[in-house]
Amino acid sequence: MVTDPPPAGGASTQPHPYARVAVIGGGAWGTALAAVARRAGREVRLWGRDAAVCAAIAGGGRNDKYLPGIALPAGIAATDDLGRALDGAQAVLLVTPSATVREMCARLRPHLPARVPIALCAKGIEVHTGLLLAQVVTEELPGHPVGALSGPSFAHEAAKGFPTAVTVAFPFTYEDRLKPRAATAVRLAYTLSSPVFRPYISDDLTGVEVGGAVKNVIAIACGMMTGAGFAENTRAALITRGINEMKTLAQALGGRRETVTGLSGAGDLTLTCSSQTSRNMSLGVQLGQGLARAECFDGRPVVVEGEVNAVSVIDLARRIGVRMPICEAVHAVLHDGAPLRETFARLWSSPLEAEPNMLDIYIDHPADLSAIPDFAGETR
Ligand SMILES: NC(=O)c1ccc[n+]([C@@H]2O[C@H](COP(=O)([O-])OP(=O)(O)OC[C@H]3O[C@@H](n4cnc5c(N)ncnc54)[C@H](O)[C@@H]3O)[C@@H](O)[C@H]2O)c1
Ligand SMILES: O=P(O)(O)OC[C@H](O)CO
Question: Which PROSITE patterns does this entry report, sorted A to Z (predicted)?
Answer without folding.
Answer: NAD_G3PDH (PS00957)
